[in-house]
Amino acid sequence: MSNSILLLLVLYPALMCSFVNSMRFELKSGQAKCMSEDIKSNAMTVGKYSVINPNEGYPIPDSHKITVRVRSPYGNNYHFGDNVGSGTFAFTAAEGGDYTACFSVQTDHNPTFNVVIDFDWRTGVAAKDLSMVAKKGQIEVMEFELKKLYETVTSIHDEMFYLRGREEEMQDLNRATNTKMFTFTFLSILVCLSVAGLQLWHLKTFFERKKLL
Q1: What is the reported pTM?
Q2: CA angle 137, 48, 159 (to 5 degrees)
Q3: For residue 156, is pLDDT > 60?
Q4: Which of 90, 155, 181, 211 is deepest in the core (most CB within 10 A)?
């Protein structure tokens, strides 16, 4: 029990950090910028992006609107926003791997300018808006904290099984590689012995014809 608690305390900060990707960055007009997030299969992910208005109090200029595309590791589109100032996306990953979110400003404006974008990308536990659950159901603080801990423990449990599966895959790969190396070595030795035997037979036959033996 104490080992499980210690493991929970060690993994909790790293787990929570890996689930949240919130940032603000600049994007030059006419260029694109992509970001990736490693998402496990069947994990929930949500994202929210918005262009910082350069003229506060006025609508965002058309020149500052962006195109956003979110793709899976196999190139499947999960979100597409064309000429938008803000947007959100949410889905459950059907494929495990690196999901990519690409932002671009399609404009021929000269000179070029920078567009500032706020981007918040969350996966796993962080993707579930537990604060909204607490407000809607008027859940007591303790029950809310227990629910949050339960979600965290479940994520750690899934992560451990995921790592165990990866370890088994690596062990299978090592065994397959060792088998192939053993077969290759055995065949190499067999070929070398066969060639040596043929050379000895050829030399013996040659010397017998020349009556040197």
Answers
A1: 0.54
A2: 75
A3: yes
A4: 155
Backbone CA torsion sign across 60, 61, 62, 68: negative
Q: Which residue has the tokens 């404006």?
A: 109
DSSP H or E stretch at residue 49: strand 44-51
Q: In what order do the strands lie in the sheet with 77-84?
A: 32-39, 97-104, 66-71, 77-84
- Quote the CA–CA distance of 179 and 143 in Å, as a whole number: 54
Q: Which residues of 163-185 are buried (b: 16+ CB within 10 A; e: fewer)?
A: eeeeeeeeeeeeeeeeeeeeeee
A 10 A CB-CB count for 31 gives: 13
Segment 12-52, tens digit of pLDDT: 444 444 445 678 999 888 888 999 999 988 888 899 999 99
Query: Do residues 123 and 97 touch, judged by C-beta distance below 8 A?
Result: no
